[in-house]
């Protein structure tokens, strides 16, 4: 019975995965939900597997004797090209991760193998009563599969970097223009200050302006993904425009840049939005519709009724998926960018918003949070459960469920970060000075304040490793935040809340996104484990920790305990602030240094304390943003993205990068 049904079931399952992917794949760019990611990952892998299996079933069944319930060879050969369409995949996903783009050669080989298999199946069925529609569908499937392979090739790291490398002639031309049009002081690293006022971005930006500016800046920031840097004109243009923008508009433009970046790295848009892409898409659509019409007009009295239903399902699915892809392509941001008619732009944008298919991105509205002290409390209560999930290799997955929480990212916090970085940018017209600012990890901020205790200043010295500084300030922030003698005014302090959100966010990145933070994390994982042990030791001796009850804790694991955990966390922080000493913590431990830092910070006036701490946290965030490679930021786009990526883009647009713009060395040596 399975032999009679396997092919029919396989081709329908293959179609189901295509429908699933075209609608759910875009959702992964604006959610960090692990269930959504798991669903997309499973559908992405199974879609290719079931399509290849189906082609194999067709080839193995051709020419074999079978009973009346088997699929006829003519019809099976007609089904085979549909699987090429499925292997081409929807426009909404070509790669699940960046690493998939590096496998474009394997996909190219797969293209040739599957084409050969489909041709073989067709050859075995000759003479075939569905010969013409089969040939038309074959060419349509070939186009779709080739589009996917081409998209993977264009998004691979080597090709991306090669396509953006400036030619020697271009560099010479740029330097010549700079020397001809700027005062001679440019030779000492000064930047061009002339600017066409008409080219400044209007303020505030309309939705159309956001799309067009997002695309313009995407063409520039692509360089950062492959470890290149801006040219002088690009840095100048980007810096000027962003200095004129409001915080709200800047984040909207950066959101759009990330949309374009996601499309270029994970979808077919970079292939199909070109003129030749539109031409092939039109040809493909015509071929599919003509195949449908030819099959519908053909005599089918020799076919099983069930097979006719399956064939029409495949045809309707092909037409429907192609129609959805075509509509999404026509009413896309790329179309808006290519139009020069304001009325047409408004119409396309309005329709695009209505047909967004859940693709509206809100990457910058939430940040993940993780607290070292909360981790200590929960870890002690669920130690038994951790051993079980660790045995099955699921520890990281359940750690996110247990320890991670989301906090809304308010407009006030965005504005605060934006203004902090903007104020630095205004002082960093010289690229060399901007490099110095980027290397600061709290010391630049503290240098602006007098009479600070040496332990505060020493915690951010250049010699101290970044992860060490971050952990010290995280412990200190938790203790200061949960201090029990705050006035109502201080409890409502914005800077106090900013510190807590940024502190927990940075620890989340270090603990749960180590791959992204690999450039700055040092031996953070070792330090964190050591600090956990020290904190647990102190807390156990001063808190009433009951022996764990396995059934009670299993029940608690699946219940919301936010209020209870918050109370325990406050008590824990107050204990650490009062009881942590050299004997228990060790004079060289992060925990002791954090507690000592908290004591010195608490001696400052309330307003001054939280102002200093919030500015230090922005500088620590900025340091991590610029020192994480562009590739690390790009790898997060398919998982909902990270807020630190916005900070990375913002600093780049303000000209705050460690690498000097292209041409600076050449110009700097001209005298």
TrEMBL record:
InterPro entries: DUF4220 (IPR025315), DUF594 (IPR007658). The chain crosses the membrane at residues 6-26, 38-58, 78-96, 103-123, 129-146, 278-297, 309-331. Pfam families: DUF4220, DUF594. Keywords: Membrane, Transmembrane, Transmembrane helix. Residues 41-374 form the DUF4220 domain. The keyword Transmembrane applies. The keyword Transmembrane helix applies. This is DUF4220 domain-containing protein. It comes from Camellia sinensis var. sinensis (China tea).
């Amino acid at each position: 019975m399975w032999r009679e049904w396997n092919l029919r079931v396989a081709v329908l399952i293959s179609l189901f995965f295509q429908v699933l992917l075209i609608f759910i794949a875009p959702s992964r760019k604006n959610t960090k939900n692990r269930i959504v990611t798991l669903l997309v990952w499973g559908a992405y892998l199974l879609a290719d597997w079931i399509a290849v299996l189906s082609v194999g079933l067709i080839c193995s069944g051709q020419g074999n004797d079978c009973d009346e319930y088997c699929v006829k060879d003519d019809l099976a050969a007609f089904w085979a090209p549909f699987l090429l369409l499925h292997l081409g995949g929807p426009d909404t996903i070509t790669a699940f991760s960046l690493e998939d783009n590096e496998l474009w050669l394997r996909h190219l080989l797969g293209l040739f193998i599957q084409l050969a298999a489909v041709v073989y199946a067709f050859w075995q069925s000759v003479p075939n009563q569905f010969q013409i529609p089969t040939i038309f569908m074959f060419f349509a499937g070939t186009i779709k599969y080739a589009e996917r392979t081409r998209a993977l090739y264009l998004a691979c790291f080597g090709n991306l970097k090669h396509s953006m490398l400036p030619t020697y002639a271009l560099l010479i031309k740029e330097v010549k223009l700079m020397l001809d049009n700027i005062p001679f002081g440019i030779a000492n690293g000064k930047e061009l200050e002339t600017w066409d006022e008409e080219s400044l971005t209007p303020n505030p930006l309309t939705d159309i302006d956001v799309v067009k500016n997002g695309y313009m800046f995407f063409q520039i920031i692509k360089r950062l993904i492959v470890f290149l840097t801006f040219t002088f004109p690009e840095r100048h243009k980007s810096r000027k425009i962003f200095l004129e923008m409001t915080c709200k508009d800047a984040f909207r433009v950066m959101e759009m840049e990330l949309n374009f970046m996601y499309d270029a790295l994970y979808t077919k848009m970079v292939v199909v939005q070109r003129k030749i892409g539109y031409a092939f898409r039109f040809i493909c659509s015509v071929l599919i519709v003509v195949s449908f019409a030819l099959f519908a007009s053909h005599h089918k009295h020799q076919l099983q009724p069930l097979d006719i239903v399956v064939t029409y399902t495949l045809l309707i699915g092909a037409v429907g998926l192609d129609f959805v892809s075509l509509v999404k392509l026509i009413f896309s941001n790329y179309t808006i960018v290519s139009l020069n008619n304001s009325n047409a732009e408004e119409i396309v944008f309005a329709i695009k918003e209505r047909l967004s298919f859940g693709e509206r991105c809100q990457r910058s509205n939430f940040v993940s949070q993780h607290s070292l002290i909360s981790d200590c409390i929960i870890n002690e209560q669920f130690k038994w459960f951790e051993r079980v999930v660790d045995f099955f290799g699921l520890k990281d997955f359940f750690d996110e469920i247990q320890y991670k929480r989301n906090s809304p990212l308010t407009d006030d916090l965005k504005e605060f970060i934006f203004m902090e970085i903007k104020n630095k940018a205004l002082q960093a017209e010289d690229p060399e000075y901007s490099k110095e600012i980027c290397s600061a990890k709290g010391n630049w901020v503290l240098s602006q304040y007098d009479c600070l205790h040496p332990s505060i200043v020493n915690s951010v010295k250049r010699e101290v490793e970044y992860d060490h500084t971050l952990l010290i300030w995280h412990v200190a922030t938790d203790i200061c935040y949960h201090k029990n003698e705050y006035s109502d005014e201080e409890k409502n302090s914005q800077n106090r809340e900013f510190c807590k959100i940024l502190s927990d966010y940075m620890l989340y990145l270090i603990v749960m996104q180590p791959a992204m933070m690999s450039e700055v994390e040092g031996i953070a994982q070792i330090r964190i484990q050591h600090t956990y042990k020290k904190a647990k030791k102190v807390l156990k001796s001063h808190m009433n920790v009951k022996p764990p009850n396995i059934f009670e804790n299993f029940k608690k694991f699946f219940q919301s305990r936010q209020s209870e955990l918050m109370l325990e966390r406050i008590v824990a922080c107050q204990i650490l602030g009062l009881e942590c000493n050299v004997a228990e913590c060790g004079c060289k431990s992060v925990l002791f240094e954090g507690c000592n830092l908290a004591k010195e910070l608490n001696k400052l006036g309330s307003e001054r304390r939280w102002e200093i701490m919030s500015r230090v946290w922005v500088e620590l965030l900025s340091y991590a943003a610029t020192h994480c490679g562009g590739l690390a930021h790009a790898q997060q786009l398919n998982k909902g993205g990270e807020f630190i990526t916005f900070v990375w883009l913002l600093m780049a647009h303000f000209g705050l990068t460690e690498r000097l713009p292209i041409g600076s060395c050449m110009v700097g040596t001209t005298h």
